[in-house]
């Protein structure tokens, strides 16, 4: 059902809808991260930070769309304005002893979630044809998410050695290897079967090569989220999607992989 939404809405309303989906999932993830930080004793500005996070994703895309080229400095400008806004807010809405901690917690949420996921939205702009850019987004999601599936199945079948017993006891090195292998196969197969829909630079060979670092980073991203939830003493990050879990549980593997994919595609395009 979730895959149908991710692929279906942009198919109906155009690739631009993907940016709004990314912004929505980013906002949910960022808000859940702020809630987890609150459970650790921090006090971030949840509403302000999340609102600025949405601007951080939508702003560069629409600047590119209407100006006609990448506005590289816009992201840096948004981060600077974000810091200014948070500094002004803490002067009147926090006790003196909490101001720096609040500023730090708010900025952590902004940098770790929307700033990183904005590179996912920017995949639409890698080629002049946004439909090809949307295929890059689908490829990234498939490679990252099937790594989770492969790691789970391989871990249950062959798992013996714990990867990080204190952070995520269920993850094993054998499962990680299995997840990476599955990602390579999925990345190669996707780029082969839908060859005409992808930009020319992403050949099946490059897709298989790039799938490995994407898979490895998706595992690390998941471990980071597990560490945060363990520190907050929470099993799930939230209830963003009933029956599935929080938005953070869905986007965790994309946070570190999105900027990596953007960099890798930029090297060969």
What is the number of strand segments? 2
Order of helices and strands: HHHHHHEEHHHH
Helix content estimate: over 70%
Q: Major sheet: size, sense and barrel closure?
A: 2 strands, antiparallel
Class based on secondary structure composition and strand pairing: mainly alpha
So how many helices?
A: 10
Which oligomeric state applies?
Answer: single chain
What is the terminal-to-terminal distance? 33 Å
**Overall radius of gyration:** 19 Å
**Low-confidence parts, pLDDT < 50 over ≥5 residues?**
none
The side-by-side strand order for the widest beta sheet comes to 1-2
Give the CA-based shape.
Answer: globular
Percentage of β-strand residues: under 5%
- Tally of domains: 1
**Mean of all residue-level pLDDT scores:** 87
Describe the structure.
- The structure is a single chain.
- With 269 residues, the protein is mainly α.
- It has one domain.
- Helices cover 76% and strands 3% of the residues.
- It contains 10 helices and 2 strands; from the N terminus they run H-H-H-H-H-H-E-E-H-H-H-H.
- The protein has a two-stranded antiparallel ribbon.
- Helix 7 packs across helix 8.
- The longest helix is centred in the middle third of the chain and has 29 residues, at 130-158.
- The radius of gyration is 19 Å and the shape is globular.
- The two termini are 33 Å apart.
What are the salient characteristics of this protein?
269 residues; two-stranded antiparallel sheet; globular; 76% helix; mainly alpha; 2 strands
